[in-house]
Specification:
Helices cover 3% and strands 33% of the residues. The strands form three sheets. Strands 3, 4, 5, 6, 8, 9, 10, 11 and 12 form a nine-stranded antiparallel β-sheet that branches. A two-stranded antiparallel sheet has the order 1-2. The chain has a single domain (2-158), classed as BH3618-like. By secondary structure, the chain is an all-beta fold.
Length: 159
């Protein structure tokens, strides 16, 4: 399927790559279909491109890239609607705000986006009982990024 986007022009989207967000993202509840886009020059950042509203795209990143100790503890009921059976099936992203001054870049660690890689179902959580906020400084954490092997960390704990 072809999608005309503001950020990337016309893109070809494989239907198997479409992420289903049944309840939408916070503030965008009516928008349920997205695709993760990757560009070598933007890594580790990706774009969460909306299919339903092609002018809408969010910059996202795996939080452990900049925040190696980041963990999300959820009850199984909280992820039942995206059918998570194994925490290793979940990939976590957080929305990044990139202002004019790059040193002011922040990540929303309080509202992680969980992607079930087995079925492409997605849910955004709001972590109310945590030390995380909606605006953690990314630049202050850049040094910690170099010391972590992000491929071996499980950041979701389901109880």
């Amino acid at each position: 399927m072809e999608v005309q986007t503001r950020q990337f022009g016309t893109i070809e989207v494989n239907e198997a790559d479409i992420l289903q967000i049944p309840k939408g993202l916070l503030g965008f509840e009516g928008l349920e279909h997205f695709v993760l886009m990757e560009s070598a020059e933007c890594l580790p950042f990706r774009w969460l491109q909306c299919i339903d509203a092609p002018d809408l795209a969010f910059v996202v990143v795996s939080p452990v890239v900049f925040f190696p100790d980041y963990r999300v503890a959820v009850h199984a009921k909280e992820v039942a609607d995206i059918e998570v059976a194994d925490p290793h099936d979940v990939e976590i992203f957080v929305v990044v705000t990139i202002p004019e001054r790059l040193e002011d870049m922040t990540a929303n660690l309080q509202g992680p986006i969980l992607v079930n890689k087995r079925n492409n179902r997605v849910k955004q959580l709001v972590l109310t009982d945590s030390q995380y906020s909606v605006a953690h400084s990314v630049v202050k954490q850049m040094e910690r990024r170099r010391s972590v092997d992000t491929q071996k960390i499980t950041t979701v704990q389901i109880s």
